[in-house]
């Protein structure tokens, strides 16, 4: 059984912004995601018996979607500020991201998630019990990171003791 999800690859300039930001927090007891694991999730992970079939379905959606422009404005603890385990960059995407998400969920025969889409990049992970060791209890750092998301990816998630690693099973370049 494979654990699959769909997301966007990050551009090199956005990765460099993230790496520059991380240099200010190297003393924090967190695990920063490696550049190759950074992504923006569109469709949340699901269990799938046939990743080859998923790759085939993914190839059939080529040409249906256009690139999306994004702005990330804040770095925060997530997903629950009262009991955090992640550091996120939060932002918004222009265009029809909710429709894109619903269309992909339908094509992959996934239940549609009707919650509002929260554009976020996971930058680091930590265990909830390590939160008291962090130098701050609140994190609300203003940023201004802009990006174009033009590469959609079918990922497979491999859960490891040190955290998840993501394998790119298929990639699709989006065109205007």
How is the topology of this model organized?
Blueprint: E1 2-9, H1 12-22, E2 31-32, E3 39-48, H2 51-60, E4 68-78, E5 86-93, H3 97-107, E6 119-125, E7 140-149, E8 151-160, E9 163-173
Antiparallel strand pairs: 1-3, 1-8, 2-6, 4-5, 4-7, 5-6, 8-9
Describe the structure.
The chain is α+β, with helices and mostly antiparallel strands. The protein contains 3 helices and 9 strands, in the order E-H-E-E-H-E-E-H-E-E-E-E. It has helices at residues 12-22, 51-60, 97-107; strands at 2-9, 31-32, 39-48, 68-78, 86-93, 119-125, 140-149, 151-160, 163-173. Strands 2-6-5-4-7 form a 5-stranded antiparallel β-sheet, covered by helices on one side. A hairpin with a 7-residue loop joins strand 4 and strand 5 (86-93). The chain is globular, with a radius of gyration of 16 Å. The mean pLDDT is 93.
Query: What's the rounded overall pLDDT mean?
Result: 93
Question: How many independent structural domains?
Answer: 1
Low-confidence stretches: none
Q: How many strands, which pairing sense, and closed or not: the largest β-sheet?
A: 5 strands, antiparallel
Our measurement of the CA-to-CA distance between the termini, rounded to an integer number of angstroms, reads 35 Å
- String of helices and strands: EHEEHEEHEEEE
Give the CATH superfamily: Cyclic phosphodiesterase
Question: What is the total tally of β strands?
Answer: 9
What strand line-up does the widest sheet have? 2-6-5-4-7
Please give the radius of gyration in angstroms: 16 Å
Count up the helices: 3
Overall 3D shape: globular
Helix amount: 10-25%
Q: How much strand?
A: 35-45%
What's the CATH topology name? Cyclic Phosphodiesterase, Chain: A
């Amino acid at each position: 059984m494979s654990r699959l999800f769909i997301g966007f690859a990050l551009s090199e300039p956005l990765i460099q912004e993230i790496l520059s930001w991380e240099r200010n927090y190297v003393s924090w007891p967190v695990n920063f995601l490696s550049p190759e694991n950074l992504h923006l999730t569109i469709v949340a992970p699901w269990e799938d018996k046939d990743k080859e079939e998923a790759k085939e379905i993914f190839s059939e959606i080529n040409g249906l979607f256009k690139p999306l422009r994004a702005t990330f404005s804040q770095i925060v603890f997530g997903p629950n500020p009262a009991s955090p385990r992640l550091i996120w960059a939060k932002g918004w995407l222009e265009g029809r991201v909710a429709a894109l998400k619903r269309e992909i969920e339908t094509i992959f025969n996934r239940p549609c998630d009707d919650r509002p889409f929260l554009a976020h990049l996971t930058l680091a992970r930590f265990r909830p019990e390590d939160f008291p060791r962090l130098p701050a209890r609140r994190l609300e750092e203003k940023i201004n990171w802009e990006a174009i998301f033009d590469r959609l990816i079918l990922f497979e998630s491999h859960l490891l003791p040190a955290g998840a690693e993501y394998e790119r099973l298929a990639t699709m370049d989006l065109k205007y």
